[in-house]
Amino acid sequence: MFGNIQGLTPSERRGLERLFRRKIPPDKLLTPELARTLTEISGPMTRQVGVIVNRKGIIRHVMLGNHHGIIIPDISLYRRGYGRLKGLRCIHTHFNKNEGINTEDLSDLALLRLDGMITIETKECLPGQVCFAHLLPPNHENRHWEILTFRHPGVIDLHFSEFIQELEGEIQKFQDRLSSRKQEERAILVHASQSPRFEAERSLAELEELARSSNVEVLEKIWQRVPRYNPAHLLGKGKLREILIKGLYLGATMVIFDQDLGAKQLSNIARMVDLKVIDRTQLILDIFAKRAQSKEGKIQVELAQLRYLLPRLMGRGTAMSRLMGGIGGRGPGETKLEEDRRRVKQRISSLERELKGLSRGRRERRKRRTGKGALPVISIIGYTNAGKSTLLNRLTGSKVLAEDRLFATLDPITRRLALTDTRDVLLADTVGFIRYMPKDLRVAFRATMEELEDAHLFLHVIDITSPDRRGEIMAVEQILEEMDLLATPRIRVYNKIDLLERDVSAASNESVYISAVTKEGIDRLFQMLIERLTENTRQEFTPIPSHG
């Protein structure tokens, strides 16, 4: 039984408990007997009473609300599957004359993908008008639901089992067409902030690229300007419902928020809708989990995942379970994410010890690499997907994986580069930078990032085609500043000039324009490397002012 049952008389309590003995024939939407029983219980209390019924006609939940509304319990563990309805319908009483199906009822119908929402008008403890709302398959009129009205329960002539089977079949056809696409997930992206539109659009565009890197098809991007964040749901509950209903109607399998969601927000939103709900950090962690190849990389990602999830295990249970499958819970730690807090903490401690041991080995290798007589180190840095791995391949003749996706490279890669017949250097490719890099990920990859301290020179690769290259340059320099590495000499390498329709500016002493794909500008880059490394590579260096 669900709801506030404090203060009920023994007979009222028994009346509610006896509802579990009732059963509806599978072909009936509602029987006059059940309708009368509900109104006879509801009327004297002046409180709404409802039941959740499955397709076999068995009552699974009994609910007690107040005069104005009723709250549906968590039914997330029941029948799930894309293109399928929940297999449950909600039947409850109403007191207001001719109220029928209200906005709250329709929201619950859509968000929970119920078979139906049925309301019974209560008049002097007897049933009156019955309203039945059900979802519609996608249609040209963009109607999400239909409402049928019956004068009283005795005139309902609907064969429910046949009706719901046919309806679900139509919805399934639409979902099957979506499922035939390559992507395993389909998402709507949501950005809520006080930022100007251009900043919100820039952030959403980057979130879309992150989603694409995780093989997620983006169905729609939504920007909502908010004066302040709602501590419970991030957005106002009404607006959030609109967004979630739209996602369901478009055939989304998940909702991705551009902001980091707190444990309470994540849990509350997930309870509202039968979709996976993740935030930007979870998406980035998922990408890293897929890209990690080395043992150290896999440990670093699992550690970041568990640190992120630990404070969110407060909502562990059905809602938490819905958050964890597939994207947002992928990778080495996916079988451990449902453990209790104590065991997760133990796992974190174990991973930290293992990572510390691997880091010691890394430090020893760094010492040998940077000791007396060691080769100079040039580190390729830059915003993710700027073309760093492509440049490494072009300069060294390597075949490192280089994809047009964010974070295609995760594990550090070092190759030997012959600058001249007598001069060799080590060229190191690093993980790409990004705005708002998750804190837990940065902590986990601290040992990897520390290798940048050994560099004699940075090649800061910049995607010249990016409409937000100024912001990306600033993001990289901010991370360098936080790591106290702004004093390391660097050359700005503006990449992808082959994609421009116009000529670019002439190179300066601090920058060069190239195409790592067509080789244009590579000779000039080689000359600059030789000139820089001929100088004292540890000279004092004045940071370059930001410019695009």
Structure description:
There is one protein chain. With 548 residues, the protein is α/β, with parallel strands linked by helices. The chain has 3 domains: 2-178, no CATH class; 184-369, Rossmann fold (3-Layer(aba) Sandwich), CATH 3.40.50.11060; 375-534, P-loop containing nucleotide triphosphate hydrolases (Rossmann fold), CATH 3.40.50. Helix content is 37%, strand content 19%. It is built from 16 helices and 17 strands. The chain has helices at residues 10-18, 32-45, 103-111, 160-179, 197-213, 237-250, 263-272, 280-291, 295-309, 318-324, 341-370, 388-396, 439-444, 446-449, 469-482, 522-534; strands spanning 2-3, 49-54, 59-64, 88-94, 116-123, 126-135, 145-150, 185-193, 216-225, 254-257, 276-279, 377-382, 413-418, 424-429, 457-463, 490-495, 511-513. The strands form 3 sheets. Strands 1-3-2-4-5-6-7 form a 7-stranded mixed beta sheet. A 6-stranded mixed beta sheet has the order 13-14-12-15-16-17, sandwiched between helices. It has a 4-stranded parallel beta sheet with strand order 9-8-10-11, with helices on both faces. Strand 8 (185-193), helix 5 (197-213) and strand 9 form a beta-alpha-beta unit. It starts with a strand and ends in a 14-residue tail after the last helix.
> CATH H level of the largest domain: which superfamily?
GTPase HflX, N-terminal domain
Low-confidence stretches: 315-324, 332-337, 536-548
CATH topology of the largest domain: Rossmann fold
Rg: 30 Å
The CATH architecture designation of the largest domain is 3-Layer(aba) Sandwich
CATH class of the largest domain: Alpha Beta
Number of helices: 16
Task: Estimate what percentage of residues fall within beta strands.
Answer: 15-25%
Helical fraction equals: 25-40%
Alpha-carbon distance between the termini? 63 Å
Mean pLDDT: 83
The largest β sheet comes out as: 7 strands, mixed
The quaternary organization reads as: single chain
What coarse outline follows from CA principal-axis ratios?
A: elongated
- Counted up, domains total 3
Strand ordering within the main sheet: 1-3-2-4-5-6-7
- For the secondary structure, the number of strands is 17
